Amino acid sequence: MVRYPVLVVLAALVTGCSSTGGGADAPAPNASNSGIVPPSLTASAAAQGQGQGQKLSFGQSAEVSFRPNAKRATTLRLAVTVARTGRVSDLAAYALDDQAKASTPYYVRVDVANDGSGDVGGSPVPLWATTTAGAVVGASSFAQPFAKCRSTPLPQPFARGASLHTCLLFLVPQGATLVALTNRTAAGDVAVTWTGQVEPPRPQKK
């Protein structure tokens, strides 16, 4: 089941800085969701995708075809290295609606390299979280880097030979937990699934 209302737009969940925020180090007041699916993958295709694809463990890499739109395409090498549970209090500087306050953030570390010939800079990293409820959740991206997890689209340019180690933020709805990260093909099938030990939240500083 693909649950689109979960994270349609992060701005609808994170609407701005709270009155307690402010200053140069305050999180950015504007945020947007990178999307449940990339532009070339329609909602209906995602819902119909039944392929099992390749199953990997955290730390293993795979080459995947990536076509963010009809004019750009390349081959990316992806590896999910770490998944860690966060706390919704990490977003305390933002005004959250009730749905967001009840969610659980997950910070997912990812290695991305462009092994193909196309430049896909500015596109979201093509990964989605799957949950114990069977939902597919898209990564959230911020207008400015979030201190705990940048969760931004690929830098521009991101051409052949470019690589980076980045972090993606997934807000999983109340009552569910993250169980895997998946990449999907343009046809909607699951191309690669990564699973592994999801680490607990870091100890809070006193």
TrEMBL record:
PROSITE patterns: PROKAR_LIPOPROTEIN. Keywords: Signal. Residues 1-20 form the signal peptide. The keyword Signal applies. This is DUF4352 domain-containing protein. It comes from Nocardioides mangrovicus. The lineage of its organism: Bacteria, Bacillati, Actinomycetota, Actinomycetes, Propionibacteriales.
